[in-house]
Amino acid sequence: MYRRVGYAAMLAMLAGGAAAQDNGPSYTSFGTPGLLEMPTAESADPNDIAVTLAYSPSAGYRTSFTYQLTDRLSGSFRYGVFDQYGRPTATNPDPGTFETFDRSFDIQYRLTNESGYLPAIAVGLRDFLGTGRYSSEYVVASKSVGSKLVMTAGLGWGRMGQKNGFGNPLGVVSDYFDDRPVYQDREFSDDPSVGLGGQLSVKQWFRGDAALFFGAEYQLTDKLGIKAEYSSISYPEDVYNPAVDYKSPINVGLSYRYKPGIELGASYMYGSEFGLRGTFILNPTERGTASGLDPAPAPVRVRTADQRAAATWDRAKQPEPAVRAGLAKLLAVEGIELVGLELTDRTARLRYQNTRYRSEAQAMGRAARMMTQIIPPSVQTFVMEPVQAGIPLSQVTLPRAQIEAQENMVGGTSAIYDAATFGQAGAATGLETLPDPDPRFRWGIAPYLAVTVFDGSGPINADVGLEATAEYQVSRNLILSGRVQQSFRGKRDPLGFFDNPNDYANVRSDQAYFGRSGDPILSKLTAAYYTRLTPDIYGRVTVGYLEKMYGGISTEVLWAPVASRLALGAEVNYVSMRDQDVNFDFAEYKTVVDPVTRERTRVKTGTFDAVTAHVSAYYDIGRGYQAQVDVGRYLAGDYGATFALDREYANGWKVGGYFSLTDMPFDQFGEGSFDKGIRITIPYDYFLGTPTQKTTSTVLQSLARDGGARVQVDGRLYETIRSGQLGDLTTTWGRFWR
């Protein structure tokens, strides 16, 4: 799960450019709004993203990611690293401890808001999709007393139902709630509630003993607060990992809001140990750096009344080739390439490619301004057709008079949107197209940071080195591209190892062996061709070394009407596994274990070929939410579906999650049971303040396994064309006049 700029880089950005609430709720060592370990009914600001790093001697290291999805609903993903007690055996009665990695998911929903007399009330699940080490359910209430004190009390089940637990009050409803069942597939602990993880433990929820917890937080100053809680978790040493030298249920601590978006914490836990915490908070809807650093656009050139009344223009004084050449030069100032122009006395149809702005709406506004500078004054209508990868994306028709009237008017953005007409891009007939650009060769060399997040050997592993990229544009539709990397770290051992005693090939669980020889690696070398098959249907073919692990051919078609919320696609890939040195060869490997020394070695066994095929549905739900479902055959030969939901903001931020369920049995998939994760995309212009189409993406994946694995292909059609579709144009239309 490599990313050129990954988890560590994202943390640096959070620390350096955080912009979030000044006096929101403080956070727990579990990375959720709350006290020290116990939750509260408080919620962060909608869209807040909080990354928490916490440490204590017994609990080890915890890294948590919490996202406030709505005003009331939040979700968390957590990765823990701690020492676990080994199991005594007859031959080894004292096995000592070993390092363990644990993943868990939380969710909390605030049922009621706080009022003058009533508290806020929330219900939550902790570790409801992990191994179950921290599995808890709770109902909690919080009430402010004045402006500085918040009181909290709650009732917990599971791990939160251990200290001074009592019979479940829900037992009065049904005896179903009296007893809490245990996992039957425990493998990593003598604790009967710990399992392989990845499965919803619905049959455990709100069952068994319950216990009370409570606490308070007092704000000493605007920045410094003090916390105290009575914890209902007991961490028994006989079965629990991690275990605590438990002496008291009382925990106390401090929280210090160093500056908006950065909170530090210290605590004294269970009468025996100290803990530390740092939380970095960022809200994608707020900008922590300067905004509006884009170069000022050219002003709209307003025609005189006589010019507007003209029925035609003098082609002898202003010939079409001169108009086309002049417009091409003006557009180039804005990083926009003129692809084609059709001129009549009343209409100008411009087909262009935006190479600078993340928002096609902003590029369209810049292009329209330039058209007012040189398009003959008799032309009343501008028809704009944005292009990407040689594909015309849409057609937006704008009245020239509205462009002239609304540039500096209050409400001008809405007015120009209301005056626009959206539709499919027209045929090339009638366009005076410019020749395909001379084959353009672009290249660059820069440092890279490759981060592997949450693999089997630890939460973060990083690689640094030099990366050379090159792109050769044969035509607007045909692009050759490649990437070569040289690590500064030299030859390295694999990050982790998974024995797969199952019927499926190691299609992803061996990824830690690839590209670690210390020699230069060819991480990508492809030829990609894009086309529009019909006004509503697009096509793509990509051939070459698609990613570090696989090379082959990828084909795709996509039906995506401009004004439709729904798009449908199909993709078929034929790929082979690449050599682990990531050069030009293809090879499959397996691990051989010496029966005497138990030493593992890797040997080539031939080649591994795979056919994957998926049909996909994309749906724009509205308000920035996008849903995607992919159904088909995966790399390991398993069949199933991937479900994804993303929230994209007008400023280009995207936060989402996904999970894949296939016919691969959970016990053969291994720890985690099925593929799932959280993904974040951050646009560079959010931090730079200047226009660029570059983004950085990070995937927080529960665990990379073989089930639900797909080949990674750059430039898939939906993401290529969607910036020019009605939904995205509408979302970012506020940038039209920027």
CATH topology of the largest domain: Porin
Sheet with the most strands, sense and barrel status: 14 strands, antiparallel
Integer average pLDDT: 87
Q: Determine the number of helices (DSSP H or I, runs of at least 4 residues).
A: 10
How much helix is in the residues?
10-25%
CATH class division of the largest domain: Mainly Beta
CA(first)-CA(last) distance? 37 Å
Q: Indicate the structural class.
A: mainly beta
Task: Please report which band the strand proportion falls in: under 5%, 5-15%, 15-25%, 25-35%, 35-45% or over 45%.
Answer: 35-45%
CATH H level, superfamily name of the largest domain: monomeric porin ompg
Q: Spans with pLDDT under 50 lasting ≥5 residues?
A: 1-21, 184-193
Task: Give the number of DSSP strands.
Answer: 35
**CATH 2nd-level architecture of the largest domain:** Beta Barrel
What radius of gyration results from the CA coordinates?
29 Å
Sheet with the most strands: spatial strand order: 1-21-22-23-24-25-26-27-30-31-32-33-34-35
